[in-house]
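Exercise 7 asks you to align residues with tokens for two separate proteins.
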Amino acid sequence: MTRQVTIKKGGQPERVAVADAIVTGLVQNALAGNARASRVLQKYQEFAYRHSNIGTGTLTFVDDEYTRAVATSISRNDDE
């Protein structure tokens, strides 16, 4: 999962870990309205939260175009 692969971000090739490429693909598909990708991403987020050190540090939410798009997508999926 840490092996590097090349993906396109914004039309430009970028080297990222396989795990990052998977999550990026899930986010893109979820934002495009793919309900299955949204469910898989939700399960991954729950898994990551349970296995992280959240609570031992400070969590900062960034309000930008990306986070607003994700929030909108999640909100739409909750309405289904």
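Second protein for Exercise 7:
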Amino acid sequence: MSIALGDVRELVSYNAETGTFTWNKTRPYCTVGKPAGGLTPYGYVRIVLCGRPYQAHRLAWFYTYGRWPSHEIDHINGVRDDNRLANLREATPSQNQANKAMRSDNTSGIKGVSWDRSRGKWHASINVSGRMKNLGRFQKIEDAASAYADAAMKFHGEFARPERNVNV
């Protein structure tokens, strides 16, 4: 069973503008006014209340709206410890995946674009509902980047993140 909203508000305060939680009661390892929680190895803030850990972004949603999110909570800017209310939105698992950052092993510097060595062209593709969709092969990296950006807006809308690490 999850914690009651009244208990949450009794234990911590949430500042929607900064995204921080602070303690309202002094307990072991907790001092009134001090930041609540700590970072997980994955970069999210976790807060333990009544012996149970809660992700701060889900707790912020509950604290603000009085209900737990029905799916996942997406960090719009992709920063996992940025729990400002303006940076949080409900998302399906598929929408949350669409907003993922570019993979660290990407060598083109453009999300959804890779070099097809066998054809000597740039290849653009996008994941839509768990299936990889081929967007074509292109002579110029700019054209592949544009194809991905257009498809990201078409298929993912506000959750699209066609970020780039290089100037194209």
